[in-house]
Every structure is written in structure tokens, then in C-alpha cells.
Target: ATP-binding cassette domain-containing protein
Amino acid sequence: MKTENAIKVTNIKKSYGKKPVVQGVSFNVKKGEIFGLLGPNGAGKTTTLKVITTLLRQDEGTVLVNGFNTLTQGRKVRQQFSITGQTAAIDEELSARENLLIFGRLNGLTGAEAQTRANELLLDFDLSNSADQALATFSGGMRRRLDLAISLIGRPSILFLDEPTTGLDPRTRKQMWQAIQKLVSRGTTVLLTTQYLEEADSLADRIALIDHGRMITVGTPSELKQQIGGMQMRVEITNRQKLSQAEAIIKDVLSLPVSIDDRVLTTLLDNIKLQQVPQVLAQLQKMRISYTNLTIGTPSLDDVFMKLTVGKN
Model:
């Protein structure tokens, strides 16, 4: 069945009892793209993902996966994708190669086909040298790469990644990013949920932002940043005891809200407020408040997240 979209979600609704969890969510995932699904805890991301993967039935609306309807063609839908979660679905008593061979046979491959596919995946995910070692010797990143390799045994056209890099160190996270981008370069479509906004910013072609079960916005990371407009000023105050005073100066001069993270003060600027930044710096100098790392640039995806969502009640 030919279709431009790998996934088409149209006005889905889902309630648990009388509590609405997903309220009219719609979005499309194009073939061959990485699509990020973001939102605060309790926003409805997991429920939406479960509906798309047929683990839950929606109360209203339709979901098409490669053109197949999740309500009436569930078996066909499940043949279109694989899913990788936060925890590895691997047998600790087997080696990486043995795990891959077993999952290959479970996916209908012959013994020879499973062997060939296992070798391909071990090479792709840089696990060849450790293929026959006990999994007790594997790091968290190696286990996660193995889990991702296992999910690709059957060459699914769509891959769901539910917070795949949670708990990994930054270096291992980047290795996983590279592996995901390699998959997409070969034609796989990826729907990604993540708690790391820099991950979505780096990986996703487009992002859907959900809050309280409702769709807030959809767009590229750049488009989302443009929605909140303007520029961002970040200034790090040297003396922590001067933070409150510095915050008061910025609020007084710019009449804007200020966020504080450690010793860094951040505020969003429009074109008019941007021209008043020298006044802020003059006041800081006048009050002998020293600062470092003053930057003015475009807002981050974190700013978009904080501006457009309100989080769980």
C-alpha cells in the first residue's frame, strides 16, 4: 500500500475512565524522517505511542501506519514497525551474537539468514569484537546498541524509539545518535520520544509538542524556535550573592521575566528590548556586579518547551 506518510494520526482521543489523556491529537510522520514527540511528564506521549503501536485502542480518531488502520488491520500494522524502549530486551545469559540469532529465527529467518543478518548488525553497531563475550562485560551503551540492533533484525520500515538514551553518558548518547542517523540514511522512518531536548534538536527533522493531551505545535526545530520569537540573552553572574540584585536590574530595565539556572540569568528579547541591553550592562557595572559569558543568540529548544508548555498539574 503506497502512501507519502509512514504514520498518519488524525484527531485521536483516549480517556481512562472519565479522565481524558489524549484530546484530539493529529500529526503526520513522513517516510524517511526522524520525528520527535515531546511533552512534559503526563502530557500524553506514552498513551499516544501505545495507540499508534496498537497496544491501546483509541476512543475516537484514526491512525494509519504505512496506510494500514490500527483498529481494523492491527496485524498488518504490527508487521510495519519495531520498537525499542528504555530497557534492553536481551537475555543476560547469552552473548550478543546468540541474542541476535535467536531474534532472527523468531522473525522468520532461516539459520543461514539469521547468521548473515547478525553479522551485519554486529558490524553496523560496532559490536563485532565483543560479539561472543558474556553480556556481563557490556557497558550500558553497548547493551543499548545491542537492543537497537535486535529491533532491526526484521528490517522494519518504521522504528519507534521510546527514550532510547535515558541514563547514558553524553559520549555514548552521541554514539547512539550516529547509529540512529545511519538507519535513517538507509530509509528507516523513526518516531522518537526523549527527555533530552538537545537530542530532539540534534536528531529530529520535525517535532510535535504535546501538553495535557493536546497538540501544541508541530514543526522543524527552527520553526518552533521562531514561534517564540526574538533573541535570548544569557549572562553568568560571578558572585552568587549578587544574583537577586542582578535579576532585579534586568527586570527593571527590560520589564521582562528572568529565569535563573545556577548563576546564569536568561531572558528573551524582542528587537526593541535588544537595544536596551547596554543599559542593563551599565547598571550591572554601576552596582559593581561582575559577570562573564554574556551571550545573545536564538532561543533554544528548552526555551520553546518552557514557553509553550505548562507541565503536569
User: Anything to note?
Assistant: The chain has two domains: 5-225, 231-297.
